[in-house]
Amino acid sequence: MFLFIGLGNKGSKYQNNRHNIGFLFIDYLIRKYNFLKINSKLKSILYRGNILNYDILLSKPETMMNLSGESVSLVKNFYKIEQNNIVVFHDELDLKIGKIKFKFGGGSAGHNGIKNIDKHIGNEYYRIRMGIKNENNYSEANKFVLSNFKNDEKILMDNKINLIDKNIMYIFKKDINKFMNEINK
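The chain above was modelled as a monomer; its predicted structure follows.
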C-alpha cells in the first residue's frame, strides 16, 4: 500500500493558499479516482482507493502544516506503511511557480511541515515538491505562503497537478529520472 500525504492547513480560510497545494493535489485525486473517505482519525482525514491497480491511502493531516509529522507517524504506524511507500506532496518556496521536483530523502529546505515529518519518521521518504515562488519580491515568507494563488497561477498549478497525475505511474515505480524527464518536456 502507498501512502500519499498532501500538506496544507485545514479550514476554509487556507483553502486556496499557496501552502495548501498538497491538499489541492489530494482533492484532485479524490475526485478523479473516486476515493472513499474512511475516517477522520489519526489526526488526519483519510481516503482509500486504487490508481493503476495500486492500493492507495490518501491523507490530509489535520494538525496544521507545522505539525504534519504527528499525523504522518500515526497513519504510517497504524496502517503499517513501508517507509519507501510514503510520498509527500508539498509547496516549495525555493522553486519557481509551476516547477515540479521528485526526490527521495534529503533536507527540508526550511519547510516546517517537512521538518516536522523528518522529526517523527526520519527523512527517507519520497517527495513531490511543487514550486510556488513568483517573480514578486516578498519580505515575509510566512505571509507569502499563506496568500492565495492569483487566477493565472491557479490555472498553471491545476495544469501541473494534471501533469503529475498523467505521470503517476513513475511515482509508483519510484522512477525519479523518468518522472522528471516527462514532467519537464
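The chain has one domain: 2-183.
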